[in-house]
Structure formats: structure tokens, C-alpha cells
């Protein structure tokens, strides 16, 4: 999905994933995969497997150990330690004079706070040790798509950024500010406050991405009733107010565990703000997302389809998903929203890389 977001102006020199389902999905969608895609453990790769010197290295390591839905094991976690497998390759490339000109590390917001910020400090130190300057942005896909999906993007460069790419940004979240403030002075001196403008207002909502009512399978009334029974009074009152108006309304439901009166209670939480909740993998610790439609006094529920999940990630309907629904939802829920990548590339990465040769030339003349 990062490759789709970057767009056709970019060429992919090398790609890697451990997951066989994601690997097959990549092959299905990129006919040139045989020339550059390697399935397997990133720790089994060596710098000799990577060709040339890349403009950009992109790392989206498994997020479960940083996620609130996961075990919060931090960078020491088995899955998220894939990052250090990636970083070992970057260090090897540097030793051969082939350092990537820029690096993007994408992950969940927990990257900023894991282990009291020590994981983020370790990441910052790794970047600094290889001569990179860096900064972070927290971007919610809801600015581009009808899905609430905040993610952190750490962007690093070995060369001074042009002044127009440095400054205030709506993506300097409170979490980013706190992560910066917790860094040691030698690391804050390497920090870049990346300037990334806000996009134009999103003009689509969840309802616009859904399949026609007649084309999907709806829950039996009894199952819908069980969903309604799981709602806390506040959510039930919200639904009843909408039902009373009789107009069509589309909501998204997630099942969550909440603490009430000192005990854990399972609740169904519904939102009617035009956004889906954050897509997750079926094994990611949360239930599969449910669509609720109420109209004319009738309320129905159903599961979100894999194709709808793909649309919520900004993927075109031509994108080939795995045949099994669980696998397709896994691919969608574990990806990066393609329109976010396109905005980041167009507004920051491409201007940065285009300006860097000019900066080197000016330095040589000086």
C-alpha cells in the first residue's frame, strides 16, 4: 500500500514481507514482483540482497507490540523487532556507502510512548548514529478517508532540508511534542519540525464507500438484537434519537471491553460521524467491525466486507484481495492508508529529494 501511495513516479527496487498472505497479495497486484520481492524474515537478508542506493527506504514493521490492542512489548517484542532487522540492513548499506537518502518509519501512536518513551529515544538514537536528522508527524487517515486511523510517520534525511519544508504543521500532535521533549539534548539538536500542510477537506463518508444494501448479507434480527443489547446507555440513547427521526443513518460498531463499576463489561460502541473505526486485523485483539443502518424505524446490522475495508484504505476496486475474507481483512487492517502516503510523498518527500541535489551542488560551489 505504501508503493501504491507513492505512485507511478516512483520505482520499487526491493520489497520484503514475512507474511505469506501479504506476499501473495503483493504478487497479485504488482506484475514486476518477481524481479524485486523477497518473501521471508528480514533478519535473513543481507545488504548484498539490496541493489544500488535508494532514494527512500520505507519501514512499516509489525505494529502489534506498540498498539493499545497488543501486548505493548515495545521494540524488544518479537514481532516489532523486525524494525531492527531492517535497521541492520540500513547500517550495512551505510558501511558500503549506499545509505538511503531518506527513511520513513511508519507505525501506531504507541511508538511515541512505548516504555515511557524509551523506545522512541532508541529509534532516534539509531537514526542519529547513522548521520540522519529526523522528525515525526502523526497523521490520521480520517483527513483523507472515512476511517479513524492515526499513525506516526518518522521521516529522516541525511541532508539539510530546504527551509520551506520546516515549520508548523497540524500533524505535530501532542504525542509528537511530548516525544520530542523527552529526548536528550543531543537528539533534539537533530530534530526537524517537518512542515506538512493539511489536505483539502474530505468529501466522502462511510456510507459512500459501502456496497448497495441488496448486495450484502445482513444479520438475522436476533443477532442485531444482541448487538443492540451490548450498547451502553449513552450509545443506545444516541441510536434511539436517530431512529426517532426516521431518516437513513449509517453507523460503525466495534465491540470493546470497558471497566464499569470495577468490573470488565463487553460493550458495542456505535459512531454516526461518517467515519469507520480503525480497521484492525481479525487477530489483532478487537472484533471485526460491524455496519449498522437504521431507516424508517428499521435497524439492521452486518459485517464490513473485505472490499469495503479496502476502500477505507484508499485502495481501488481493481486491487486484488485474497480470496478468503479473513485473509483479505488481515491485509487491509494491517496496511497503511494509500492516500496518506501520496500526500506525504507529494508535499514532503518529493520536494525534499528534489532539493537535496541542489543543496549539495551549492555546497560544492561554496
Name its key features.
single chain, 366 residues, alpha+beta, Rossmann fold, 2 domains, four-stranded mixed β-sheet, four-stranded antiparallel β-sheet, 10 strands, 18% strand, globular
What is the fold's blueprint, element by element?
Elements: H1 2-6, E1 15-17, H2 20-29, E2 37-39, E3 56-59, H3 82-95, E4 102-107, H4 110-113, H5 118-129, E5 133-140, E6 150-157, H6 174-181, H7 185-188, H8 206-209, H9 221-229, H10 233-245, E7 249-260, E8 263-271, E9 290-295, E10 298-303, H11 306-312, H12 325-333, H13 338-365
Parallel strand pairs: 1-2, 3-4
Antiparallel strand pairs: 4-6, 5-6, 7-8, 7-9, 9-10
Sum this structure up briefly:
It contains 13 helices and ten strands. The protein has 366 residues and is an alpha+beta fold.
Helix content: 25-40%
Total beta-strand segments: 10
Rg over C-alpha atoms, rounded to the nearest angstrom:
22 Å
Count of the domains: 2
Number of helical elements: 13
- Describe the main β-sheet briefly: 4 strands, mixed
Strand order of the largest sheet: 3-4-6-5
What sort of overall outline do the alpha carbons produce when their principal axes are compared?
globular
Please write the CATH class name of the largest domain: Alpha Beta
Strand fraction equals 15-25%
Give the CATH topology of the largest domain.
Answer: Rossmann fold
> pLDDT below 50 for ≥5 consecutive residues: which ranges?
67-72, 358-366
CATH architecture of the largest domain: 3-Layer(aba) Sandwich
Query: What are the secondary-structure elements, in order, as H or E?
Result: HEHEEHEHHEEHHHHHEEEEHHH
Query: Structural class of the helix and strand makeup?
Result: alpha+beta
Q: In the CATH hierarchy, what is the superfamily of the largest domain?
A: Vaccinia Virus protein VP39
Gap between N and C termini, in Å?
A: 41 Å
Average residue pLDDT: 91
